[in-house]
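Re: the request from the purification team.
They wanted to know what the chain is likely to look like in 3D before they choose a buffer screen. I agreed to run a prediction and write the result into the notebook, where they can find it.
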Amino acid sequence: MAPTHLRGGLNMMFQLATTLGIFTANMINFGTEKLRPWGWRLSLGLAAAPAILMTIGGILLPETPNSLIERGFQEKGKKVLEKIRGTSDVHAELEDIIDASELANSIEHPFRNILEKRNRPQLVMAIFMPTFQILTGINSILFYAPVLFQTIGFGGNASLYSSALTGAVLASSTFISIATVDKWGRRALLISGGIQMVVCQVIVAIILGLKFGSDKELSKSYSILVVVVICLFVTAFGWSWGPLGWTVPSEIFPLEIRSAGQSITVAVNLFFTFIIGQSFLSLLCTFKFGIFLFFASWITIMTIFVYFFLPETKGVPIEEMIFLWKKHWFWKRLVL
């Protein structure tokens, strides 16, 4: 529903809501942890509040013009389009949506269609973008921040404070991407964010490798430095791969395979979230400070991938996204 020139920033409101939700959950858990022995029940029960809000919101939410037109309600779709654009002059955009809907309705098997050679660039992005997003290591830091900070010498309360701090940093850094994504573009944020994350991971690995071990503890100054660098890492993720890991896949699919593409993106993201979530503590015990170099190497790979294989999607209408792939030096041989 977003207009093309604001699509990136509005799309990132999704990531902002997610990070605010994570921070709110952290603070609720921090508060209810003191209410023993029944605090965990309150924490768990409060999850019903957003569920109720989502249910009510779902009832009040209007259908999108694309969905209405694709299902044959062309006049309703036109009225909704006029309402969200604030003008009756929507003929050109309406025609694009109608053309895309007719093509989408001609496709009987979107999951089979997405496997065709001409859709290979979108399929690759649907798999690699969410995979790379998780392999930045962000979930490991968010899930296990208290364990991580306690391991390097912080007390129990300090660990909880530090994890709450990283949640707040992640939420606030999303505002940077909302303000800049439609000015600077997707590639600039992904590449610069990747470079900053690599530098931060390497710095933490060097500090822990040289100053921390079974026979020595981190000094207070080095402990504070580690927290600061991790916050800088979280900041870089919050304005680059965090929101753009969702934004880019959401805007590259033509209408006929959009549902299949988005399903693959979410499934891959949740799969790798599960894998990293289950394996991180074992990896931490095995690699020790090397776990940060492990994630740094993946971030290096994904930054190079973006530089060579992801075209800039800023300001391009979704219905015209196919022309980007046809002009790209690598993908044009598949989509022509």
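For the purification team: The chain has a mean pLDDT of 88.
Please add any questions underneath this entry.
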